[in-house]
Amino acid sequence: MSNYALTAQKRTATGRKVKALRRDGIIPANIFGKKITSQSIQVAAKPLVETLKKAGETALINLTVEGDKAAHPVLISGYSQNPVTNALLHVDFHEVDLTVKTTAMVPLKAIGEAPAIAAGNILVMLKNEVEVEALPADLPDIIEVDVTSLAEVGAHILAKDLKFDRTKVKLDLEDEEQIVVIQEPAKEPEPVVVAEEAPAEGEAAPAEGEGTKPAEGEAAKPEDKKEEPKAEK
Q1: Quick check: is 148 in a domain?
Q2: Which Pfam families does the record cross-reference, listed alphabetically (predicted)?
Q3: pLDDT band at 230 (very low <50, low <70, confident <90, very high)
Q4: Dihedral (C-alpha) 179, 182, 184, 186: value to the nearest 10 degrees?
């Protein structure tokens, strides 16, 4: 794995004064760990953003805090961003013991081209990251997933197929758990056409305002007439 280096200064600005730091291109941060007292620090934004993009949360960083006797081996344990601009607002650094294994989430990256995609199918990443356990210096920055063998629908890659140094890194997944699978694209439902009910063969639809005709051979019923009263003689 790659090693990175950053320089920081102790931070005294808190509360509203932190906004002024950001305007000056400085990011507020904290460093903590089992063997040190938590400190408020600040780091220049440009090198910090570049390191975060490359290192992520799994690469070991040698963090030198001005005034401290030695550099701190740290991992980025978390950070916050502006929800609108995505500008970096704050970072937490976790000092680690290089002799003690730690856990981290490592991103997965598909590499190569799956033949099944050329046939119109889709490649589905069921997991974008996996949890691993290793010594801090052995944590991989990323785990690549070679998809060039996926040639048909249902073809997949399992956790046991992932390539990394298993003598140093332990994967927290069952061997048979799927990581990537080829699926057919979703089919759009066909529109349902509802036909109007037509009259039976040989039967004409009644004209508007016309009553039901009597069946063949059946006399029409006369209309009921009121009996007129007879004149008295």
Answers
A1: yes
A2: Ribosomal_L25p, Ribosomal_TL5_C
A3: low
A4: 30
- Please indicate, yes or no, whether residues 140 and 81 belong to a single structural domain of this protein: no
Domain count along the chain = 2
Domain boundary among 138, 158, 183: 183
Residues 36 and 114 in one domain: no
How many Cβ atoms are within 10 Å of 81's Cβ, its own excluded?
A: 11
pLDDT, tens digit, 9 for 90 and up, residues 66-82? 999 999 999 999 999 99
Average pLDDT along the chain: 86
- What does the alpha-carbon distance between residue 40 and residue 43 come to, in Å, rounded to a whole number? 10
Identity of the residue numbered 144: E
User: Quick one: CA dihedral 47, 52, 54, 59, positive or negative?
Assistant: positive
- 121-141 average pLDDT score: 95
**Two tokens, residue 155:** 């073809």
Tokens describing residue 79: 């950070």
pTM across the whole model: 0.70
| The two three-digit tokens of residue 106, written as one number | 């490592």
